[in-house]
Every structure is written in C-alpha cells, then in structure tokens.
Design goal:
The chain is α+β, with helices and mostly antiparallel strands. The chain is built from one helix and four strands, in the order H-E-E-E-E.
C-alpha cells in the first residue's frame, strides 16, 4: 500500500474525496469536540463572525464526536 492509500485509509476512513464533505458551524466559535457528529476525516470550518475564532478548521478523528483543530485563525 502506497503512502497516499495509507493516508486515505487511516485519516479519511477510505474516503477518496475528503473535500466533498466540508461542514460549517455558524452559530458559535466553540469547539465541535464532543458535540458535532460526522464521518471520520470530515472537515469542519467555524464561520462565526462574532468572535476572532472564526475560520478555525477541525477534522473529525473517530467517525463520531472527536475533533482535532488543524488550523487556528487568530
């Protein structure tokens, strides 16, 4: 298995097009961790204008409610 296939298998749970499912959170700038459910490898962008944390980016790491922040827009 090549490196690309390993990345797709382990990070994106086999989703060959991880950019096809990007969700946004517009109601608050709080972390989606423990709150928002999505398939593993889904990206979530916080698009909240009421805080300087808007445009933060998270990735789902377990196919449930575990999220890791991968970009902090300060």
């Amino acid at each position: 298995m090549g490196l690309r296939e390993q990345l797709i298998t382990h990070v994106f749970a086999g989703n060959n097009d991880p950019f096809s499912t990007i969700i946004t959170q517009v109601d608050s700038a709080t972390s989606p961790n423990g709150v928002t459910t999505a398939p593993q490898g889904t990206f979530l962008i916080i698009d909240y204008d009421g805080d300087n944390s808007d445009k933060d980016v998270y990735i789902n790491t377990d196919g449930s409610t575990a999220w890791t922040q991968i970009h902090n827009d300060v």
